[in-house]
Predict the 3D structure of the following.
Amino acid sequence: MLKRSLLMLVVLTLLVSATVSANTITLNFLEVMTSPERTALLRDLIAEYEAMNPSIKINLISPPYEQADQKATLMLNTNQDLDLIEIRDYSVKQFVNNKKLTDLTPYYEAWSEAETLTPVAIAAAKTVDDTPYWVPQAIFIKALYARTDVLAEYGITEMPETVEELIEICRQITDPSKNQYGFAWRGKGATMKFGDLFASVCVDDVANSEFIYSEDETFFLDPGFKQGMEAYITLFKEGTPPDGINWGFNEQVNGFVSGTTPFLIQDPDAIPLINNLLGEDKYEVVPLPVGPHDFTLIDYGFCGMGIPSYSKHKEEAWNFIQWISSAEKNGYFNEHWGPLPVHRTTFDINEHFQGKHYQAYRYEMANPDTFLLKTYPLASAKWPGWDVVYETDVQSVLLGRMTLDQMLQKWTDYWTK
Amino acid sequence: MREQSARYFFLIMIPAFVLLTLFLYYPIIQGTVIAFQKYTLFDMTNTPFIGFDNFKAIFTDINFNFGQIMLNTLIWVCVSLALQFVLGFILALLMQKPFRGRGIYSSLVFYPWALSGFAIGLVWAWIFNGQFGLVNDILLRLGLISNPVGFLSNPSYAMASVIVANIWYGVPFFAIMLLAALQSVPAELMEAGKIDGAGPLRRLFSITIPYIKPTIISTTLLRTMWIMNFPDIIYAMTGGGPSNSTNILATQMINKILKFYDYGQGSAFGVVIMVLLFTYALLYLRLTSGKEETF
């Protein structure tokens, strides 16, 4: 008896699951900017979407952050079952080159909310061949964070508006015997994104160039660049802990939170972290200081979602992208993750992004004549690895193993030869 | 009968052979082939054979001096191995005699061996942090230094710092293996040595070490290979920096793949490592077995 009812149960279960699976479409979604909190956030959003669309099931694949890009490359190159893929500024060119992404132009044309995307988001979407291969989900741009409480002890209440002022304040307050320094140096990982805010902003011609530098145009031998680099080196020697040479993101934030280095240049995703460690009121976020030609560079980082070229469920995948990219959902997502949302309307409807620490970012995006939107030549074959070359060379110069002139010549050769 | 057992022998070999082919020989061959191709993730639609160009490129790289990387690798392997071995041996000798709580003590000692290299690197990166690190804090409190030392940011200390982390990680392996070997040394031999008037040192060098020599040879050989192929700790602590001072063959291989997306040059590093280790293993085994004959 028991056997028979068990058998019935099994048969019934099989039948039910068979009918369900006949009507359900499963979309495989690979995320790459994985962190436990963000994965949970995505899962919540997916659950909400699935509840509204019973015929869709989204299977989220979350490889560990360090291996995620590799995994994405591998899955795409071997045409594994994927319908939604998270793409980053660093990986987009590679995927397009290997013909793995769907051109989303027709979808954008039919999408009402495409109009409210910020200029940064639009530029990001069209990074490769001026074609929107994806919808950006999050924007990273930099601003200057200042520990107002620490600075007040030194009588500094005016925040620096130029690079020169920033360097001067850092030198002024630095006193190694008290373990007080000025600037949270970035020595490891994407270091050019910090160095160029001091050196490339000193070159007038950068304003008219497509990229900060590229195979077609470099500015390393420009006297302005050299002066900017010299000032940057002075900042290291006289306003930064010597250990900064080995600092990555965590150490930078730690230096800022401990007050050792009351100035930090970071992306908005540092805000939730710093609020958590320090509270909201001990610091201020102000626009990046400008260079001698009254502009600075907003190199924008981004990640977003695309559809693999071989996906069998492109329509369904797009419907999900459209839903999660709405001003409301995208605002919610970024509010809880940390970067900036992609729609300008989000800043009007989302209370979080109306908060004081986000105003500097909003100001930067609203003043593109001073805060020039410039990116690196991500599509150049010279780009991968430039990060390591830049980092190693700057370390060599700071340690006195290479002269500044040697480095500048070497960089020119790297990009032009 | 004999024929049947031979057939049976080959039959039971098949699974092992298939697994080895799939997961060992195929990747080795494939990896070696890639070392002779222009193979970058940037453009996978175009992967022509380019002869020895990848090797030329890594030997003459002006950004990452190959000689410096080789020297770093040599220091990393030799110093790590020697100290791991000596400390592991001492630990094994100390734990040889039973004492109260030996079980708990030995599991604590072996604990690092169970951790992932990358996690160890992250922990030691904080211990050696030049601003907020534990070591600096202790030294400052003891009054031994007046300003924090940049253990990982100063090229003079960086290699020593990553090696310390590696030693901490590798000592348990030698301790486990040598302890097991030590316990196999017959008590009668020791007894005989004692009766003949040999002191503890003499017994160590004339009885214990010769007796466990096969274990010593195989463990040091294995560890050499593992240490050389172990970029995790360095990668997490310094990323090969500052200014290349901790960059070894294995970290540079990872750099080529993760940062440059250049699988061709990455594989070329892999082939260099393989050739070096293969030659080393041959020489090492020949030298050590030669000694055995004269013994």
